[in-house]
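Good morning C.,

I know you're traveling, so I'll keep this short. The sequence:
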Amino acid sequence: MPSRVHAIVVARTGDSAAAQLSETLDALRAQTTPPDAVTVVVLGSGAQVRAIDGIGHSVEAIIEARATTTFAEAVALAQPRVASGSSVWMLTHDSRPRRKALQLLAGSLERSPSAALAAPKLVRYDDDREIVSMGVSMSRFGRAVELAADELDQGQHDAAEDVLGADVRGMLIRGAAPVVLRPDPGLGGADEGLDLGVRARLGGARIVLVPKARIGVRPDGVAALPQREAARTWAIRRAQLHRRLAYAPAFAVPLHWLSLLPLALWRSIVHLIGKRPGAVAPEWGAALAAMLAVPAVARSRRAIRSFRTASWAGIAPLRVTRTQLRHRLDDGHGSERGAVSELHFFSGGGAWAVLAALVVSIAAFFPLLAWPSIGGGELLPMQQAVADLWNDAAWGLRDLGPGIIGPADPFAAVLAVLGTLWPGSPSFAVVLLWLGALPLAVLGGWFAATRITDRAGLRILGGVLWALAPTFLAALVQGRPAAVLLHLLLPWLFHSAAVAHRSWGAAGAASLLAAASLACAPSLAPAVVALWGLAVMAMLAAGRVRGAVRVFWLLIPAAALFAPLVYWQLRHGDPWALLADPGAVAPLAQAASDAAGRLLIAQGFPSPDRGGWEWLLGGSFAPFAFLLLLPVAVLALTSALSPRWRAGFALLATTMAGLVTSMIAVGVQVSFAQGEAVAIWPGTGLSFAWLGAVGAALVTLDTVVAVPAFRSAAALVTGVGVLVCAVPGLLAVNLGEAQIRNGAKSTLPALVAAHASDDADSGTLVMTPLDDGSLATQVVWGPSATLSAQSTMLTTATRVRDDSLAADAVDLLSARDFDAAAALTDRGIGFVLLSSLPGQSDQARRMSETAITAIDQRAGFVKAGDTPNGMLWQTATTPAERAQPSHAQNALGNLIGLGQLIVVLAAVLLSIPTRASRRAARARSRVVGRSLDEPIAPRRADGDAVATYTDAHDTGAQGSDAQNSGAQVADARDGDAADDARPAQSGPPARERQPEPAGVVSPTAATATPHPAAEENSR
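The tokens, ready to paste straight into the viewer:
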């Protein structure tokens, strides 16, 4: 044994730390071979340490240091008190060495002359059977890897001796070792033991493990990693980067230093894909800290160089290989804790339902098969190039109006994504959207139903009910693209948001879908924000902080996309305009804001034709059409009395939020079309309400109606009622009762379109005489007014954006003598189009005739003639170039776009599924809100249309979700510890559970005894 051992104990201040330090000093005195000297370094005031009974007889000195001093710095403070040739035993106030610990450590150094360090086995402070740390290695790129941690100690690692490093707590340094072989303060509190092992190897020595020497430690000790995840991630990454700069060859250090920020960007992307968003900020913080710690790196390199005698080749065999690392971090492919939740999309009939809906859609919209584009209603042509679509989605110069520079509606980004799916002809993508609307709605409804029921028949029913919703068919018939897209997005939003608290993958997908849904229907924002706020508060009240953070993320991308538009509207004093429907505005038929109109909305119809029954059968039957939807309402209300009443209440709250939104929205007029105020479309709120109603009805059918025959009958009556109600909407296109039609490639005459194809900045002044004697003007840039170029900044404007242009347009038709052509060409306008509204009044007709005569008499205009779009004139001189944004405006636009891109990209990366996230999702029941005492339906051999289909795996999965609370359908037993898919950790051997046979499960057995997987998932 060395002649002398000097123990350095680093302690925090405080009553608890003082009590633990007293126990540690007692353990030192009880050693079979006690240390010769003990020095205590207190991080803070040492008054409480000095008050310990007998402290003067136990320690030779007490050193006070700042509370922020790291373990390595504290050891360096005590080093001058260590006698020359003395071994150093590094401890903390929370470490309690067992009786023979020092004797065994010192003996190992005596038996191993080449060893400079001896490390003990760290165990839990109150349980010697649990290993906290025993040996550390590192990967090829310097990642620290624990060789044994958080395992039951069964002696499985006692044969290990030769390792690369170990935890610094309890480590004994040979007295003959050079003084530089001490913990490196530049590491910042992590990887000190690993770094000491690497330095010892480079100095021709090594570290030995002494498994029989045990020291109990606490997880919150001085030398332990921080408890908070962000701080722990920062410390680990900071130490890794410091070691990389300290170990690298001299010529490679500048390259490593320059790569720190690009590497942080790459690793941030990897973190987001790996569903670890909390590691992004620490990653950048660690990179910046490493870049600024040049003096610390220089000191570390000098220390290594002062005694290095060996090469890195001697360390290579002790590194962890990629295969070993993957094996250690893999939690076992295919291990789903006994519960596997499968979709059964094909075997459960979902695929057949989608295929049948496709056939119905082709029959209902058969004329669309020959249409290159679709028009009518609020439909307009799309931009011809995908790049132009994305330009319309960015902040900048708008393609409508007199040179307006500002933010785009978020709906333009949704249209850009849609047009990108068919880049050859974005307008045809809208035709495909209409043709695929019904099957896509069935698909979305089927997947949304998987969060409510495992029964194949009920899932199909959910898809059918969602596709045949009266508000959806009304939007298809009237040509409302925003409402159609919203209805297709809502079930997917429900499918992902219902489990957003479980994983970052679901939260990322839900955040993108929420942003797209609100972009299509800003009027839903109050309802969505209210439900979102209730869900966050419910999570916090239940103590699920991680779940609350994930739910909180849901509206961040939407906020980023809407922020520029919110600022614009608030700056112009019109906050109500934020609720306006995006896209083109047209005065289409919709429920009025009077009592009769709101009664119509309460019955589920957004338009006065009551789903088409007014024009199909007349007024005798139409008032009773709502009775066809009554079964859905009755089943939905019954869900509040079901065993899954929490889910029922949450879905009913969604229904009420949607209905209230529709009732209020129908009376809010913030958009204008040709001088006429247009109310917000109430169908968006009804789609939201229909989502909750259908979900609540499925809860009732899944839990209340226990007899399969009754369940089948109730589902059949409900489905047939909605199907009959949808008949007029499905026949409208073929009977000529729909507002959609074969669309033109351009809303402007062919001459303008041809000229603008060569000059995209060519402007056209469109003037339209109105029935009240006023004149509506609009400037269209390019070959056509397009759907993505529409902006609520213009459609909600309550005052003229350019008074001088409006004055010139009026004077153009008056007797005022001025050079009208020059006034227009100076603005970049080369064409004047006088259009007319269908069924115009005599006053408007006379105004049109007067306008034609006035313009014909103006010099500088060449009459192009009468076109299908109206009378057209072209200026005789070439128009000037359109005014472009300034450099400052372009810079602002780029900055806004970059910020939005970062947020959206983060959400996209979070939503990308990985093997671990898929495995974690399959290990949890898809059904949300199911309580553990809820009967699990059996799998029936004969399999009727609405019976449950549950195999042995599904039976286990069905018990995995517990009670629902809050506005969001949330899993009540979701705990923070089970939120993420993490590497498996060895623990006490659990009782082996045998899976049930894949045969028929009797209802009695399923009800009486929960499946073992249900017990596992209920924790």
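Safe travels,
E.
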